[in-house]
Every structure is written in C-alpha cells, then in structure tokens.
Design brief:
With 496 residues, the first copy, chain A, is α/β, with parallel strands linked by helices. Chain A has helices spanning 7-29, 41-54, 130-133, 155-170, 194-200, 202-205, 248-251, 258-267, 289-296, 302-309, 321-324, 366-379, 391-396, 419-432, 449-455, 480-495; strands spanning 58-62, 70-75, 87-93, 113-117, 123-126, 145-147, 178-184, 209-212, 224-226, 228-229, 231-240, 246-247, 331-338, 347-348, 351-360, 383-385, 400-407, 412-413, 437-439, 459-461, 477-479. In chain A, the strands form 6 sheets. In chain A, strands 1-2-7-3-8-20 form a 6-stranded mixed β-sheet, with helices on one face. Chain A has a 5-stranded mixed β-sheet with strand order 13-15-11-17-16. In chain A, strands 5-4-6-21 form a 4-stranded antiparallel β-sheet.
Chain lengths: 496, 496
C-alpha cells in the first residue's frame, strides 16, 4: 500500500476529477425518485447498477418485502488477499422526498440548476457549463449551489463516492479495504422493510465497520462526525366529550370539553421549561464529566441557533443544545379539536386529538416510555381504550381516552475512542488539517439501528452536505464547496 | 272583548284552520333562504309581505346597514282606540342555515317532505296529501314530522302565526292588542346589523312587551317559556414556537413547543370539573333560595340529558343543568396545531391556535371577562400581541401570545313575577291546562338584547317547536303536534 495521500494531494486529485463528475450528478438528479410513485425507482436502480459496475463493483438488486428493492454494490480489496482486510459498509439512499414543483424556484425539481447568490441575497441561476470553465478555489464558486431534489439528500454523496472511485481507479491507487455499499430506496418513507432485509441478507452485509453518508454537517459547516442518532416512537391520544359536537350554549358548563381535558392532560406531562415531569422518563441517562467534555467540544453558537429558529429562551432539558439531544423527547407534533379560524363553530367538540413523537436515546426503551405515559394517563383518572368509545364505554367511564403507540427507528450510539473512531478521525484530520467536530448524538433519526443490532458492528455517521440544504422541502440544494470536500472525504477514507 | 276561548275552543279552532295552512307552509318552506346567497331573501320578503297584508297587517320593508332588510308587519288593535291598548312586539326570523343537500334524506332541503316513523325507527316519507285527509288527534299523526330547512327554525312558527290570524279573522274574533312583528333576515349569521336597525327604527318598534318565537321547547316537549338567554363573546389565542415548523429531532428538547404552551395555559384556566379558576370570573352571580326554587321547578331528567349527549359525569359549574346555565362559560370550541392523522409530520409546530367562546349572563360584562382572561395570561408570563410576531418580538419576549376578542350578542333576563309574566303564563295555562315549564336562562343566544336595551321593555321567549328538530343541521324537521300546539299558543296569546 502506498503512503497516505497528503491534504494537498487529496485536493489536487479532487479538482482533477470533479469536472467530469458534474455530468453524472446532472443525470442522476434528473431521475425522479419518489418511492411511492410507480416507475420512479427503477431508472435510478439502472443508473446505479451501471455506475458502480463501471467502477469495478459487482452490483446486486436485493428484493425486500416492500415495493422497492435495495441496491447492493461490493468491491473486493485490491492486491491483498481479501480475507485479511477489513470490510467497510456504507449506507446511503437514493429515494427523495415528495416534491411540490410549484414551490420550487426553477422549472422542475428534477432539472438541476446551478445558482449563485445575487447582490440582493437571492439565488440566481447561472449556466451549468460554468462548472467546467470558471471553477477554482478562490473565485467564490465554492459558495455556488446546485439546486434539485436529492442534491443533498442523498444523491449528492453517492456521486461524490463515484467520483472518488473514478479518481482512485484512474490513478491506480489501490483501496486496502473490502467495500460494501447498501443503497436504500425507501429511506424517506421510514425504510419500513429495511430491518427485515438486514436480517435476510445478514451474511452478505457482514462488515467490520459501518459508515452512514447522509444528512448535514454541524451548523458551522465544518467537517463533522456523528456517533449516534435518536430513534423515534409515536403516540396518538384522543379524548372524548359529548357524543357528537354539541351546541356550546345548550351544553356549555355541563358537557365536559374534550379539548380542555386534553390540554390539562398534555400540560401535566411537562413543566414550564419543557422538561418531562413523568417520574422515570429520563432514567438511565447521565451526563458525566467525560460526556460533558465531549458535548462541550462541539462549537455550537447558542445565539446563532436561537436566531436561526426564532427562539429566545430554549427549553431546559439539557444545559446546552448538545445536552438536550442526549435525552428522549415528548413532543406535541399535532393538535386538533373541531375547527379554528373561519370554520370555527360555537360548539363543544366531540373529541380532541394529539399526536406526539418521542425521540429515543439508547437509555430509553420505547416500550418503557410508552408504559410510563400510559401510567401517567391512568393516574389522571382516565380509562384507556383502543377504539372509538361505545355507548357502554361512555356510560361506564367519566374520563375516556384512546391511546395508540408505535415504535419506529431505534436509536444508536457508538462510544468515543474505539479503533474505528481513531481510524476515521485520522482520515478526516489528514483531509482537513484538523480534528473534525464530533457529535455524540444527532437529534434526528436514521434507519440504521437494524444494521448495528443485527450485524453487531460500530457505526459512525459521516455527513457531507451543508446543513442549510432545504432537505425535505422545496429548493433543496448542495453547496459546491461541500461537494468538493465530500469527494475529498471519500478519498481520505479509502486511503487511510 | 269576548270571553277568553277555552282550551277546547282553542283546539277546535286550531283543527278547523290547520288543513288550509299546509299549503302556505309548503310554499314558504320551498323558498331557499340562505342570507349569504344573492337572490334568496327577496322572494321570502315578497311572500311575507303578501301573507301579512292579506291578514290585515300593514307591512314595511326596513333597510339596514346590511345586505338584507328587515320585514316589519303591524296590526292596529280591533275595535278599541289603539292608544289605550298594550302593544305586543314579536320577533321571528325567516332566514335559514346553509344546507348541504347531500346530507339530507330527501330530494331537496327546499322541497318539504312529510314523514312518519317506520317500524325500524327510521323516518319514511308519506304523501303530503295525508295532511288533508287522515289527520286527527288519536291516529298518531301528531308524531309525523315535516322535513325541510327552516321548518322549525324559524318559518314554522311564522306560518303558525299566520294560521292563527286567519282563524281569528274568519271567526271575527277581535284581537285586543296592537301587534308588531319584526322579521329578521340575518339571524343565522348573527344579525350583525340588528342593533343599529333597532336604534334607527326605535319609534316604529316601540311596544310594551316583546315575545321571541324561536327555538325549541324544553327537552320534555312540554309548553315552555324562557325568561332569558345567554350572550356570547369569543377569544382567539395563538401561541408561538420556533419561526416556522422545525424538525422534531433536530430541535426536540430545545425549541419550546407552542402546543405544549397552549395546553398548559388553557389547562390552567379551569379545574378538572370544568369550573373556571380565574379569580372573579363568576363574580356577581348568586343562586339564592328563590332562584334555586325556579331552577328546581324545571322537570329536567339528568339521566336523559346525559344519555342524549353521551356523558356520564357532567361538569360541576352548577349543581344541576339549569344552574350551569346561570353562569358564563369558557369553552374551547376549536384547537389546532400543525396536523394530526396521516398529515402529521415529525415537527415542532410554529404555532398553536385555540378558539374560545364565552357564553354570557347578565352579571358577566364581557369586557370584564376578557380583561380577566388577559390578566391571567399575563400572570403566566406571556407578552400579549395583536399581530403575528416580528423577529424583534421573538428576540425580546420568551413567551408570546396573540389574543383577539370579540363580543357578539348580549345576554338578557326578564325576572319572574312581572305583569307580562303573569299574563303570558295565564294564556299558556288556558291553552294547555297547566303551568308551562319556566326556564330562567336558556344556554344559547338570541339577538334580541338590542330590543330590550333600546326599547327598555321586558321580553319572554315562547319556543314552540320540538327540541330534537335538527336545527342548523341536515334533516331539520317540525313535529306536527308542535305545529298544532303552536297555532293554539298564538290563539291563546291573542285572546288573553
């Protein structure tokens, strides 16, 4: 194996091969990729199959119990006997969020557009061809952005990988690892069949270390590694008032109001500072000195976060933003009873509904949290049902509530300091000249717990794109500087 | 003036003239009457003008500041010099609630259908002509119902009046009162211009006593008088979270949740039994022994009420249903934050909205109640604004809320025992052989406070229709027995 490439060599290599990659990026982003729409996914599979095959990978399409299969690409290590080398498993996805074309400031979310920021601060289209001619490191072009669905989430990182592979192939630089890439086609709908598939293809997926190339870097847009993600569960609560909405004059002060009941119940679950007051909810979580040090090392700017989301005083679950992410949440994500605005009637509603989501951390078993919520509700005098109340229910129980709960992705966390952490940190330092930002737990959810649990391997998240990429919304975009640094990251990983 | 007609004479007279009235009822119910739809109201005015003129009334159309005028019909007392006789003012309305024809079990809400209850308990159409041939007091036909918009609310009572007038005219029975009838065309949209019009036409409307012929009898369907109605005010509260909905993973435990804030605030306004806990909210209201006696005399069946609305344990604002109506309400009539059901996203909502209605009693000045709510909100640490928050608002105030309030109809109450009460009670006793049910305050709202305040006269509500008439909903109907007893009631009033 050759001497690891230096930062300067990585930059040179990236810049040498990036121009030829824009055509791939353009073509790939032009393929619609809503997994719920028939006909969207297959052209993407065909494209991926060709792209990885050209780069010396063997590619398989792995059927799941769902509508859309997974794509699996594998590359046996160059030169050295494969058995002795480590195997790296990469997770990415090529499906995208649904689009509302009318909300996009371009002809189509599937016709990529290059834009530069105009003097008035808005994004103005510039010719795609400028990527070939004017690009260099000092002309401001690193701030340009490529707009299109999945530019950041998550096709961009796939093309960064393909570009790095081309560079290594053309330069005859061997990769001293076995590489496995699993490409998900239903990530944006929660990867409902992934856990099953990981079980089914366990032997094929077996690896020493997993990396997830999805999501955005730290808000500062500095190179970032993420060691854990929260999981998610959901709870739906429905309280009941009179059978059918009743005239608020005839029955006001007499028929119990389900919206009042629900507000009192929900309000009792947290204190004024957003901390869950249900005993035991945060059990098992400790922020000791070493964890506190890890969290404090993240260069968050509270003022910037607060300004970004328009909040003056944050909740006090943790002392800092990073600390807050180490705890499970209990979040009201939707609330409804009868109507508001012009549709509002003078009635006592028949029911009131709350949708809650619970972000999970490894210490918080979702079944335990759901049980605690259940007990809290029962202690408030409710009879919990799993159906719309019958007349008999209504006559028997003064306080009725329907509760439904579901567990989605589970959380994961890879502890700091392991071999893989050291190895990956070293690669990032070589590429960028300094330690990456290391985030112990990201707030969101990735569907990779099945890999960690089934394959029993550590995993680290290597986000490459700008956080302000409008992921999941209109005008999703990828910052050109992040695209270049992403290619460099892949090169650094493969040569570490 | 002749000897008052006996109960038996009133029945005979009613039955003699009722058959000829069905044609009027059919024609009048066939005229669409949504005051918000151009062209609906004028044909009704034309019809009323003709009907009252035929019965010896002078009719005027009184323009208001709104789109639709009032109809005013006046009849000078027969025989005796008008100046010495009392003047009775009757309020009714001829506009109707909007209709959703698809929800009606008949061809059109404006094609009246006669129905009898089938053996399976559902309403089955029978020929309209049966009203002419088979009707008598013992064949069950009093349980038949006439289905059509405004059959009960409030065209039915107008046709009952017209029928009574025809009977008295044909029988040459003099009416010893001056009669004024004011017919509202915008009651179902809250009579927004009525107060102004009453001021404008004060002299024309001047009377000694006002009766409101609208709404349903007591649930027992026994003859009923109502001495007061609650008023109404509304409050809209909007709490704010992050600027724009935020990812519940990225910001859960950090960005304050506006739905949680709203639930805690609303939940703090009442206790578990539905009693307002804001100090002073119920000030001025006393249920002394004499009031308690009046309320207890209403033959309510709590079990029946509770079964009707599917509630086991009512709120405890009053000790009984009638007591509950003597207090103002604070009712959550609508609640919304982000989405529930399939639309629910994993987000922290940007805002949460509650719509409240406050039913008013004479002791509860709406401005005072609104001020108390405002103070309560401020004591909970909120900064109250009257607009969507600016970035500056967000940075300055940790807890922001928008509050808007509006006062609608005011309450009224005519105290028991006055001359008019005695006179009307006597007429009802003559017609039905016993004391009517006397309700001190009905829960709902009628737009007649302007009459009472401007004309400074007592008012009593004389409901005639069955309470289960589906008023405001699809399949509105009028029980035939109530139609007959309504005609009799008018005859008794005019001959008392």
């Amino acid at each position: 194996m050759a001497q690891p490439l230096t930062m300067s060599q990585l930059d040179t290599l990236t810049e040498k091969y990036v121009r030829a990659s824009y055509n791939d990026l353009y073509t790939f982003l032009s393929l619609p990729n809503n997994s719920r729409i028939d006909g969207h996914i297959q052209p993407n599979i065909d494209w991926l199959q060709k792209a990885f095959t050209q780069r010396g990978f063997s590619v398989e399409v792995l059927p799941t119990k769902g509508k859309n299969p997974l794509v699996f690409a594998e590359h046996k290590a160059d030169k050295t006997p494969a058995g002795k080398l480590k195997t790296l498993l990469f997770y990415m996805h090529f499906d995208g969020q649904p689009v509302q074309p009318a909300d996009w400031q371009q002809a189509s979310p599937f016709t990529p557009v290059l834009k530069a920021k105009g003097e008035n601060g808005t994004w103005q289209p510039i010719p795609w061809e400028k990527l070939q001619t004017t690009y260099n490191r000092t002309d401001g072009s690193r701030e340009w952005r490529i707009f299109g669905r999945s530019s950041s989430d998550d096709k961009g990182p796939i093309v960064m990988l393909l570009t790095a592979l081309t560079a290594l192939q053309q330069e005859h630089i061997p990769i001293p690892y076995n590489i496995k890439v699993i490409l998900d086609s239903e990530e944006e709908v929660g990867s409902p069949h992934l856990a099953d598939a990981v079980g089914q293809y366990k032997n094929k997926l077996q690896a020493d270390f997993m990396m997830i190339m999805d999501g955005g870097r730290h808000l500062s847009n500095q190179p970032t590694l993420i060691y854990g993600a929260r999981g998610i569960a959901s709870v739906t609560l429905t309280t009941y008032g009179p059978r059918g909405a009743q005239h608020s004059g005839h029955y006001g002060n007499y028929a119990p109001n389900p919206a009042l009941r629900l507000t009192q119940l929900l309000g009792s679950m947290k204190d004024e500072d957003g901390r869950v007051t249900i005993p035991g909810y945060y059990d098992g979580i400790t922020i000791d000195a070493s964890v506190a040090r890890i969290l404090a090392a993240v260069p968050d700017d509270p003022a910037l976060i607060q300004q970004t989301i328009g909040v003056t005083v944050p909740d006090k679950v943790g002392r800092t933003y990073q600390e807050a992410l180490q705890y499970p949440t209990l979040n009201i994500r939707g609330l409804s009873s009868a109507h508001v605005g012009v549709q509002a009637g003078t009635i006592i509603p028949d029911k009131a509904i709350a949708e809650l989501d619970l972000r999970l951390v490894p210490e918080s078993d979702p079944q335990r949290l759901i049980r605690l919520i259940r007990q809290h509700i029962e202690q408030k005098g409710y009879h919990i049902i799993d159906h719309e109340p019958t007349d008999a229910d209504r006559l028997q129980y003064p306080k009725l509530i329907q509760m439904r709960a579901a567990v989605g992705s589970l959380p994961f966390r890879t502890e700091f300091g392991g071999l893989e952490d050291q190895w990956l940190t070293q690669a990032m330092k070589r590429a960028f000249g300094r330690e990456p930002i290391k985030i112990r737990t990201m707030g969101g959810t990735v569907p990779i717990a099945p890999f960690i649990r089934t394959l029993n391997i550590p995993a680290i998240h290597v986000p490459m794109v700008n956080l302000d990429n409008n992921q999941h919304a209109a005008n999703e975009n990828l910052r050109l500087g992040n695209y270049l640094e992403g290619i460099k990251t892949w090169l650094a990983i493969f040569t570490e």
